[in-house]
Amino acid sequence: MANTERYETVIRLNTEQAKGEIEKLTKKIEGLRKKRSLIDPLDVEALQKINKEIKKEEANLTAVEGKYQRIERTIKNMSAAGPKDLRDNSFIPLNIIPVKNLRGVNI
Questions:
Q1: Any idea of the CA torsion for 61, 65, 66, 68, to the nearest 10 degrees?
Q2: Are the CB atoms for 50 and 58 separated by under 8 Å?
Q3: Which residues, in sequence order, are CB contacts of 95 under 8 Å at separation 6+?
Q4: Quick one: which of 18, 38, 81, 97 could link to 68 by a disulfide (CB 3.0–4.6 Å)?
């Protein structure tokens, strides 16, 4: 006879953290663009440097937005998500409520 137990886990994604990180990157990009507008157009080296930094931050923003979208999609489809989906999207700290087995004992 197999001894199986059923567990329940509640996971909440801290959306404020996601919004804060995206907002921080957006503000940084806006600041870099303002800084770029103040650079002398003849200072090619400075323009290249700031453009490179802007591209880097824009790539970071795109990556962060994509990661949070994948996490949200995985959480919404938790019943269909496999172990690989959960493992690949585990880089974001989640608030995990203590699980209880059917006997009501905290694990």
A1: 140
A2: no
A3: 11, 12, 13, 14
A4: 18
Helix/strand/coil for 59? helix
Summarize pLDDT for 38-50 with one digit per residue, the tens: 999 999 999 999 9
Query: Against a cut of 0.90, is the pTM above it?
Result: no
Residue 52 token pair: 């490179």
- Tell me the torsion sign for CA atoms 81, 83, 89, 92: positive
CA distances in angstroms from 65 to 20, 31, 39, 53, listed in the order given: 11, 19, 30, 18
Q: What average pLDDT does the chain have?
A: 76
Task: Find all residues with CB under 8 Å of 81, minimum gap 6, and list them.
Answer: 74
Give kind and range of the element (H or E) at residue 95. strand 94-101
